Amino acid sequence: MILVKKFWNLMWDWDCQVRNLFAFAFGIMKPSQSRDERQFEENYKRIKEPKRNKRPQSFTMPQKIGLALGPLLFILVKALPTPAEMPEAANTVLASILWIAVWWVTEAIPIPVTSLLPLILFPLGGVMETSDVSSSYGDSLIFLFAGSFMIALSMEKWNLHKRVALSIISFIGTNPNTIILGFMIATAFISMWISNTATTMLMVPIAIAVTKQFADQLHTNTSIDQPPETVPGKFKFGTALMLGLAYSATIGGFGSLIGAPANIILAGTLKSLYDLEISFANWLLFGVPLVTILIPLLWLYLTKIAFPMKMKGIPGGREIIKSDLDGLGRMSYEEKVVTAVFTLTALAWITRSFFLNNFIPGLDDALIAILGGVVLFLIPSKNKEGTIMDWNTALKLPWGILWLFGGGLALASGIMNSGLDQWIGSLLGAFEGMPTFIAILLIVGTITILTEFTSNTATATMAYPIVAVVATTLGMNPIILMVAANMGATFAYMFPVAAPPNAIVFGTGYVKMSSMALTGVWLNLISIVISVLVVYFYVPIVFKSLIAAF
Known about the structure:
With about 550 residues, the protein is mainly α. It contains 26 helices and no strands. It is globular, with a radius of gyration of 24 Å. The relative contact order is 0.13.
């Protein structure tokens, strides 16, 4: 019983870590407070290393509703007569999906725990054996994500990510518009390799300091006849900069296979359903060009249309960036080691499919990631005791996200093994012959709207298996529509709840809800158009070999 209690508390620790993140964003990083680096670091550490969080004394009303509604839907579906031509196992999977979806959306219990429900429901319902279900939680792509996170955590441990970000910003310049571009490029690049949440948390305090400096200079500069409004929420530069950070973190995560959970889940679902592999290099060919196009377009929209500015420069802006960069000192031995390991790992990911596999046939992206992470545990550090990577740092791995991945893959396997996919396909027979362009538009648009109100990771996890079935029924290639679902789940700009970066910048006070919604709705429309065109014209080229496998 003690072990069960400890396990339950750990699940709430992981769940509350996310809640602490939002509390920090809304409560600590207010522009009215002076910038206190020590206080910021202490609060940031509280998020990275949360104290034991006790389970809430009482559930919120949405949680109470979810707790009852999830099992109730399961019982209702099982109690009602099974639809014609629907296998009993498929009925169980459908009931399980409804239960899991309700608990995911309402967070009735910690999301990682909800993700374990297939391990219970599928074997008891006769859908799959326990060993078959549990294999989804040990998929190789989960280890790819774990290994890449070890490397990312080592970058954070030795402040390498901060050095990279400040160097990029310093290089771009100090014109207000170019400062925003510098922050966006730095954020997008770092977000390709570490989580978009951690990236945004890194960049926001630097951005706040630059924004305050700009505001102070505008008030003290007597040569300006009518200085612009600098009150948080009305300061165009501050609003554009904060939104640029949030949106570029989201876009940057799309650039690499490990940059966003939705990408990894897509690759895992394809592997589970069709035994097809999206390699790291293959995704780079797809993602990086889009990031390269979208970041400049986003920058132009923010600085020229949404929040145009006439100021030529930010007095003192370069000094702030240079001061922060100088404060890091010379590049340490540990930073050089992490840089070397990261570079070699990235090169191995990129060259594996067309070069390394000729010499090491069994090498895959997950093995490369794990090798990179393990090497960091072996190399001793010089400036501190221990090795470059240590277990205490590794404990910060988002284990809950890994369980969410496994739950999503288990759902996909259950849908295919139970025959639920074929039954859904029979219902969609009337739509057979729908033009591919229209199908892509419907999927991207629908999932984009859903993502604005729910977790994009959970939305993607639930959507991929269903979209695969829809594609087969409509006589289309599943990869095309599944990538469309991925893009719809990724680009969410309108509300703070759509993505953690949105919530973080909203909490600074420089972004009003109306500003985010108005800016985001146009960006959503632009992203939908771009996504549809990319999926229709570009995806068949980049993923030609995978599409040909069907």
